[in-house]
Amino acid sequence: MDMLNAMQTFVAVAENSGITAAADKLGCSKAIVSRTLSLLEERLDVRLLNRTTRKVSLTEAGTEYLEHCRAMLEQNAEIESRFAEKGLEPQGHLRISSPMTFGTQHITPVLPEFIDKYPKVQVDIQMTDRFVDIVEQGMDLAIRIGATGSDSLIVRKFAETQHQVAASPELIEKMGGMPKTVEDLKSWPTVAYSLRTAAPSWQSSRVNPELERARSNNGEAILRLAEAGVGLAYIPTFIMEDSIKAGKLKVLLPGIAQESTPLYILYPHRRRLALKTRVFIDFMVQKFSNM
């Protein structure tokens, strides 16, 4: 039994909600589709579909097996695509959406190496701290920090950073010295990231809104306000590492008021993924996996 063909048939039936529609999509007879499903269920010794004269529906086992089949078919398609692309040269316009600060501090410095390696790829990097619908905007991929913002895209983690609390030496002195517990931070003025949708894992509740002295949707702006002593900031370490080294900011409650934050690459689909996009994803993983 050709298991790959059986998986493709099963997925077609599940996604088209019927044997007739699946047969039309696959270009074969209903009898072949029905027979393939029966053989597959016999081999797995489990019922995958509930069949009536009008429709089919997935059983609990069928729902679980559907996800397995999709993953296996995607992996196979990706491998076949990679073999087919051997000897080809990536080319074309590569449109990237990136957060402003991460884009300027980390992606832009490594782009010359990527462009030198793939001279036929023209890079168009659009920087914004708002979530962009990459399909609607015609982007090839997007870089996201923490939240992905969509369930319809393929998500690949390529690095990890830390969010930490920091404040200027002047603010620390004004507040009576370094805090000793998370509770101590509740009386401190803050500079907030306006796109954050939930309180940090270490914080039982949001900071008192009356203590929020400023807010922004951009990490660089929050950094500068924190350096000026406006309030404490809770931002990724890659944004504030230079300020920490220069003594403009100090980390508060290290090891306590912090959380690991994944960095993701999002793209529309795996199948028939353009070579220019694939090589950029691999390049980012190579460059930042040890960040």
Automatic annotation (TrEMBL):
The keyword GTP-binding is assigned to this record: no
Organism phylogeny: Bacteria, Pseudomonadati, Pseudomonadota, Alphaproteobacteria, Hyphomicrobiales
InterPro entries per UniProt: LysR-type_TF_proteobact-type, LysR_HTH_N, LysR_subst-bd, WH-like_DNA-bd_sf, WH_DNA-bd_sf
PROSITE patterns (alphabetical): HTH_LYSR
Gene3D superfamilies in the cross-refs: 3.40.190.290, Winged helix-like DNA-binding domain superfamily/Winged helix DNA-binding domain (1.10.10.10)
Family of this protein: Belongs to the LysR transcriptional regulatory family.
Keyword field: DNA-binding, Transcription, Transcription regulation
Residues in HTH lysR-type domain copies: 1-59
Protein name as catalogued: LysR family transcriptional regulator
